[in-house]
Specification:
Blueprint (H helix, E strand, L loop, with lengths): L5 E6 L3 E8 L2 E8 L4 H10 L1 H23 L4 E6 L3 H10 L8 E6 L5 H15 L2
Parallel strand pairs: 1-4, 4-5
Antiparallel strand pairs: 1-2, 2-3
Helix pairs in contact: 1-2
Length: 129
């Protein structure tokens, strides 16, 4: 029987902590959105419409990069303090490459890395996945 790969993703609109549970340990990768405060200031100084277009393009690229990291996994926990996890989920559900992946979405507050790692480990241990 093939082991299902497990991934926890804590995210907001600027950062995603991708935490693979591998042999009881966490292997982490961090993805950062390119839409920084400086980018927002630069875009808005030209026009608000340009800023919104730039923000949408960069958010789409951010979500695409996270999605590429999620593809090899069978169980994915999306969690964090903002609606970014739900927005990402809707984007991924529209793509049939993610049909076989089981997703769980959970609201949490801000967490440091140790709390994130404990949350992911506990989640998959409790569910016995």
């Amino acid at each position: 029987m093939k082991t299902v790969k497990q991934l926890g993703v804590w995210m907001d609109h600027s950062t995603a902590y991708m935490m693979e549970l591998k042999g009881g340990n966490i292997v982490q990768n961090i993805i950062v959105s390119e839409f920084t405060h400086e980018e927002k200031e630069s875009s808005i100084s030209k026009s608000e419409k340009l800023m919104h277009n730039k923000e949408q393009q960069m958010q789409a690229a951010f979500f695409k990069e996270i999605g590429e990291g999620i593809k090899p996994f069978g169980n994915v926990l999306l969690f964090g303090p903002t609606d970014a996890k739900t927005e990402l989920f809707h984007v991924l559900r529209a793509d049939h490459h993610f049909d076989a992946i089981k997703f769980e979405i959970t609201n949490t507050g801000k967490m440091n890395e140790k709390l994130m790692h404990n949350f992911v480990t506990h989640y998959f241990k409790v569910l016995n996945l």
